[in-house]
Description:
Helix content is about 30%, strand content about 25%. By secondary structure, it is α/β, with parallel strands linked by helices. The chain has a domain at about 35-175: Ribonuclease E inhibitor RraA/RraA-like (Glucose Oxidase, domain 1, 3-Layer(bba) Sandwich).
Amino acid sequence: MTENTVASTMTxxxxxxKFAEIPSAPISDGQDRLNVLDAGISSVWPSPGARLVGxxxxxTVGGGDNAGVHAVVDSLTEGDVLVINGQGLTHRALxxxxxxxxxxxxxxxxxxxxxxxxxxxxxxxxxxxxxARGVTPAGPYRNGPYRIGGPVAxxxxxxxxxxxxxxxxxxxxxxARDEAEQVLAAAQAKLVAEEKQRAEIGL
Length: 203
Protein backbone atom coordinates (compact mmCIF):
# COMPACT_ATOMS: atom_id res chain seq x y z
CA MET A 1 0.00 0.00 0.00
CA THR A 2 3.00 2.25 0.20
CA GLU A 3 2.60 3.34 -3.43
CA ASN A 4 -0.70 5.03 -2.51
CA THR A 5 0.41 6.67 0.73
CA VAL A 6 -1.33 10.01 1.29
CA ALA A 7 -0.48 12.92 3.52
CA SER A 8 -1.98 12.72 7.00
CA THR A 9 -4.88 15.04 7.79
CA MET A 10 -5.73 13.58 11.20
CA THR A 11 -3.90 13.96 14.47
CA UNK A 12 -2.47 10.89 16.13
CA UNK A 13 -5.05 11.15 18.91
CA UNK A 14 -7.85 11.19 16.35
CA UNK A 15 -6.43 8.16 14.57
CA UNK A 16 -6.12 6.18 17.78
CA UNK A 17 -9.68 7.07 18.74
CA LYS A 18 -11.02 5.94 15.37
CA PHE A 19 -9.04 2.69 15.33
CA ALA A 20 -10.28 1.95 18.85
CA GLU A 21 -13.79 1.64 17.39
CA ILE A 22 -12.82 -1.11 14.92
CA PRO A 23 -11.98 -4.80 15.58
CA SER A 24 -8.65 -6.14 14.41
CA ALA A 25 -10.18 -8.29 11.63
CA PRO A 26 -11.55 -5.42 9.47
CA ILE A 27 -8.28 -3.56 10.02
CA SER A 28 -6.45 -6.59 8.68
CA ASP A 29 -8.83 -6.71 5.72
CA GLY A 30 -8.19 -3.00 5.17
CA GLN A 31 -4.55 -3.71 4.39
CA ASP A 32 -4.98 -6.77 2.20
CA ARG A 33 -4.85 -9.05 5.26
CA LEU A 34 -1.18 -8.32 5.77
CA ASN A 35 0.71 -7.05 8.84
CA VAL A 36 -1.00 -9.45 11.24
CA LEU A 37 1.13 -11.00 13.96
CA ASP A 38 1.16 -14.79 13.90
CA ALA A 39 -1.37 -16.62 16.06
CA GLY A 40 1.26 -17.41 18.68
CA ILE A 41 1.01 -13.81 19.88
CA SER A 42 -2.25 -13.45 21.78
CA SER A 43 -3.78 -11.81 24.83
CA VAL A 44 -2.62 -13.34 28.10
CA TRP A 45 -6.06 -12.56 29.56
CA PRO A 46 -8.83 -15.14 29.25
CA SER A 47 -11.34 -14.38 26.50
CA PRO A 48 -13.04 -11.93 26.34
CA GLY A 49 -9.70 -10.33 26.80
CA ALA A 50 -7.73 -7.20 26.36
CA ARG A 51 -8.21 -4.38 23.88
CA LEU A 52 -5.13 -2.49 22.79
CA VAL A 53 -4.69 0.58 20.58
CA GLY A 54 -1.57 2.74 20.64
CA UNK A 55 1.71 3.77 19.02
CA UNK A 56 4.72 1.48 18.98
CA UNK A 57 7.84 2.04 21.04
CA UNK A 58 10.25 -0.67 19.95
CA UNK A 59 12.78 -2.72 21.86
CA THR A 60 14.98 -5.70 21.06
CA VAL A 61 16.29 -7.82 23.94
CA GLY A 62 18.27 -10.99 24.40
CA GLY A 63 15.99 -13.95 24.90
CA GLY A 64 14.91 -14.20 28.53
CA ASP A 65 16.63 -10.94 29.54
CA ASN A 66 14.72 -7.77 30.43
CA ALA A 67 17.48 -5.24 31.14
CA GLY A 68 16.15 -3.27 28.17
CA VAL A 69 12.64 -3.20 29.57
CA HIS A 70 13.92 -1.60 32.76
CA ALA A 71 15.93 0.88 30.69
CA VAL A 72 12.96 2.07 28.64
CA VAL A 73 9.90 1.70 30.88
CA ASP A 74 10.19 5.02 32.70
CA SER A 75 10.46 6.93 29.40
CA LEU A 76 7.09 5.66 28.12
CA THR A 77 4.36 8.25 27.62
CA GLU A 78 0.61 8.46 27.10
CA GLY A 79 -0.52 6.36 24.14
CA ASP A 80 2.63 4.23 23.87
CA VAL A 81 2.64 0.47 23.35
CA LEU A 82 5.93 -1.22 24.17
CA VAL A 83 6.70 -3.72 21.40
CA ILE A 84 9.44 -6.18 22.31
CA ASN A 85 11.36 -8.56 20.10
CA GLY A 86 12.25 -11.20 22.67
CA GLN A 87 13.59 -13.61 20.03
CA GLY A 88 10.43 -15.70 20.39
CA LEU A 89 11.96 -17.55 23.34
CA THR A 90 9.65 -18.88 26.02
CA HIS A 91 11.94 -20.14 28.78
CA ARG A 92 11.83 -16.86 30.77
CA ALA A 93 9.20 -14.16 31.33
CA LEU A 94 10.27 -10.70 30.18
CA UNK A 95 7.69 -8.77 32.21
CA UNK A 96 5.29 -9.19 35.08
CA UNK A 97 2.84 -7.17 37.13
CA UNK A 98 5.39 -4.77 38.66
CA UNK A 99 6.89 -3.57 35.38
CA UNK A 100 3.41 -3.41 33.86
CA UNK A 101 2.25 -1.23 36.74
CA UNK A 102 5.17 1.14 36.19
CA UNK A 103 4.35 1.37 32.49
CA UNK A 104 0.65 1.93 33.09
CA UNK A 105 1.43 4.77 35.49
CA UNK A 106 3.34 6.45 32.65
CA UNK A 107 0.31 6.22 30.34
CA UNK A 108 1.50 3.19 28.39
CA UNK A 109 -1.45 1.34 26.88
CA UNK A 110 0.01 -2.14 26.87
CA UNK A 111 2.78 -4.50 25.75
CA UNK A 112 3.20 -6.68 22.66
CA UNK A 113 5.96 -9.22 23.26
CA UNK A 114 7.49 -11.93 21.10
CA UNK A 115 8.38 -13.89 24.21
CA UNK A 116 6.82 -14.87 27.52
CA UNK A 117 5.36 -13.00 30.48
CA UNK A 118 4.15 -13.90 33.95
CA UNK A 119 1.53 -12.72 36.48
CA UNK A 120 -1.24 -13.13 33.91
CA UNK A 121 -4.08 -12.85 36.43
CA UNK A 122 -2.52 -9.77 37.99
CA UNK A 123 -2.13 -8.13 34.57
CA UNK A 124 -5.85 -8.53 34.02
CA UNK A 125 -6.67 -7.27 37.50
CA UNK A 126 -4.72 -4.04 36.89
CA UNK A 127 -6.42 -3.77 33.47
CA UNK A 128 -3.16 -3.70 31.52
CA UNK A 129 -3.34 -5.37 28.09
CA UNK A 130 -0.46 -7.69 27.26
CA UNK A 131 -0.13 -9.77 24.12
CA ALA A 132 2.65 -12.37 24.20
CA ARG A 133 3.77 -15.77 22.98
CA GLY A 134 3.09 -17.45 26.30
CA VAL A 135 3.10 -17.39 30.08
CA THR A 136 5.68 -18.88 32.42
CA PRO A 137 6.49 -18.39 36.11
CA ALA A 138 10.24 -18.29 35.38
CA GLY A 139 11.65 -14.81 35.88
CA PRO A 140 14.10 -13.04 33.55
CA TYR A 141 17.79 -12.29 33.72
CA ARG A 142 18.89 -8.64 33.64
CA ASN A 143 22.28 -8.57 31.96
CA GLY A 144 21.57 -7.29 28.44
CA PRO A 145 22.15 -6.83 25.60
CA TYR A 146 19.29 -4.68 24.29
CA ARG A 147 18.54 -2.06 21.66
CA ILE A 148 15.91 0.64 22.06
CA GLY A 149 14.21 1.91 18.91
CA GLY A 150 14.48 0.99 15.26
CA PRO A 151 12.52 -1.67 13.40
CA VAL A 152 11.83 -4.92 15.24
CA ALA A 153 10.43 -8.29 14.22
CA UNK A 154 7.47 -9.41 16.33
CA UNK A 155 5.24 -12.33 15.42
CA UNK A 156 6.86 -12.45 11.95
CA UNK A 157 5.88 -8.84 11.22
CA UNK A 158 8.17 -5.81 11.03
CA UNK A 159 7.22 -3.00 13.42
CA UNK A 160 8.74 0.49 13.32
CA UNK A 161 8.56 3.14 16.02
CA UNK A 162 5.32 5.08 15.71
CA UNK A 163 3.40 2.35 13.91
CA UNK A 164 -0.10 1.74 15.26
CA UNK A 165 -0.71 -1.46 17.22
CA UNK A 166 -4.26 -2.81 17.48
CA UNK A 167 -4.97 -5.91 19.53
CA UNK A 168 -8.08 -7.81 20.67
CA UNK A 169 -9.28 -11.38 21.14
CA UNK A 170 -8.45 -12.20 17.50
CA UNK A 171 -4.81 -11.10 17.75
CA UNK A 172 -2.63 -8.11 16.89
CA UNK A 173 -2.50 -6.01 13.72
CA UNK A 174 0.19 -3.48 12.81
CA UNK A 175 -0.60 -0.35 10.78
CA ALA A 176 2.25 1.71 9.35
CA ARG A 177 1.89 5.29 10.59
CA ASP A 178 2.12 6.83 7.13
CA GLU A 179 -0.61 4.51 5.84
CA ALA A 180 -2.95 4.83 8.82
CA GLU A 181 -5.64 7.03 7.27
CA GLN A 182 -5.85 4.89 4.14
CA VAL A 183 -6.13 1.71 6.22
CA LEU A 184 -8.72 3.35 8.48
CA ALA A 185 -10.92 4.28 5.52
CA ALA A 186 -10.67 0.76 4.10
CA ALA A 187 -11.48 -0.82 7.48
CA GLN A 188 -14.49 1.46 7.94
CA ALA A 189 -15.72 0.51 4.46
CA LYS A 190 -15.33 -3.16 5.39
CA LEU A 191 -17.51 -2.64 8.46
CA VAL A 192 -20.23 -1.04 6.33
CA ALA A 193 -20.09 -3.93 3.86
CA GLU A 194 -20.35 -6.48 6.68
CA GLU A 195 -23.39 -4.72 8.14
CA LYS A 196 -25.04 -4.91 4.72
CA GLN A 197 -24.30 -8.64 4.56
CA ARG A 198 -25.79 -9.16 8.02
CA ALA A 199 -28.94 -7.37 6.95
CA GLU A 200 -29.21 -9.53 3.83
CA ILE A 201 -28.81 -12.67 5.96
CA GLY A 202 -31.41 -11.38 8.39
CA LEU A 203 -29.17 -11.12 11.41
